[in-house]
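[Discussion] Sanity-checking designs against the backbone

I'm trying to build intuition for which residues belong where. Below is a structure token string of 317 positions. I'd appreciate it if someone posts a full sequence so I can compare it with mine line by line.
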């Protein structure tokens, strides 16, 4: 391969090209056709979606409106330490695109703090539940593990994500529906989701990048500009500034650029890979960010591979 450049990589890998209006409209049309066919083929009566106020859920909600798919789109905003700004955006998305929308605040409801005889101190229900889960520390310690070495913010973030998904699946069961996944390709590559917490039954945007593609599609759908341009956040308060970039170590355009190069490298020989590696660290992205993104990608294979099931051959049958 001659002269591997970022330009040549872009020409081969569409992930880091912002789609034009024509391409966006084609993507939108194709997604709606596929979702509608799946709903009809499986005789579903509803679609259920968690609305966070962010880019991903707004795009999926706009794509899967009842007028395009043929069944009600039921949206739930499930705030747990969510900011008022995120709540307002979630309400705008839900009221605009969903057939039925509610803010499900029960996990955020303030109750008297446990072990407080006077009941004068209150804490959210999810915080009380997390306190109960912390009792498993004793079991982990008994098994020889030091639980204080693992950030409590991440443990609590995982619990919140799973509580939200429990709620969505309960609603989907009651309405003969399925839960829409709002995960995207950038997060998939980074393993940036909670196992049994974020991923639903059907992912309309699972193979779209968040750096370049989703913002363009959101604009074509008429989604509010401040929702498109806001700093992406999972709303789980894992980091102090509550942004995805703080957790990933890079923004989504940088993530998608690096991942596009990784994807491209799978198609070339060893000699070209060495050249590509030198090109990778010469592009206009901080080397420390590149290293962090690549390390996270490598460390998250277990998530992307899903449940590992032993075959009958493995066990001698």
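Best answer:
Here's mine. Compare freely.
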């Amino acid at each position: 391969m001659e002269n591997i450049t970022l330009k040549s990589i872009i020409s081969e890998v569409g992930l880091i090209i912002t789609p034009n209006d024509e391409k966006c409209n084609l993507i939108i049309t194709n997604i709606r056709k596929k979702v509608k066919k799946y709903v009809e083929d499986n005789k579903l009566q509803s679609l259920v979606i968690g609305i966070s106020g962010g880019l991903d859920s707004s795009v999926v909600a706009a794509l899967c409106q009842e007028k395009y798919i043929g069944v009600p789109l039921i949206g739930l905003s499930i705030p747990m330490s969510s900011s008022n700004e995120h709540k307002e955006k979630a309400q705008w998305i839900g009221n605009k695109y969903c057939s039925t929308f509610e803010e499900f605040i029960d996990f955020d409801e303030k109750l008297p703090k446990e072990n407080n005889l006077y009941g004068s101190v209150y804490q959210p229900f999810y915080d009380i539940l997390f306190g109960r889960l912390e009792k498993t520390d004793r079991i982990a310690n008994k098994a020889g593990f030091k639980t204080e070495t693992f950030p409590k913010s991440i443990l609590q973030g995982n619990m919140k994500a799973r509580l939200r998904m429990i709620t969505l699946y309960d609603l989907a069961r009651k309405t003969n529906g399925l839960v829409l996944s709002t995960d995207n390709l950038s997060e998939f590559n980074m393993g940036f989701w909670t196992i049994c917490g974020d991923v639903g039954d059907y992912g309309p945007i699972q193979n779209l990048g968040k750096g370049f593609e989703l913002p363009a599609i959101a604009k074509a759908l008429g989604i509010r500009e401040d929702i498109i341009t806001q700093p992406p956040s999972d709303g789980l308060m894992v980091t102090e500034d509550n942004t995805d970039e703080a957790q990933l170590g890079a923004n989504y355009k940088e993530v998608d650029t690096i991942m596009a190069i990784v994807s491209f490298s799978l198609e070339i020989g060893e000699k070209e890979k060495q050249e590509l590696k030198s090109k990778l660290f010469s592009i206009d992205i901080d080397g420390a960010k590149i290293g962090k993104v690549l390390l996270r990608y490598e460390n998250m294979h277990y998530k992307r591979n899903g449940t590992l099931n032993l075959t009958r051959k493995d066990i001698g049958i």
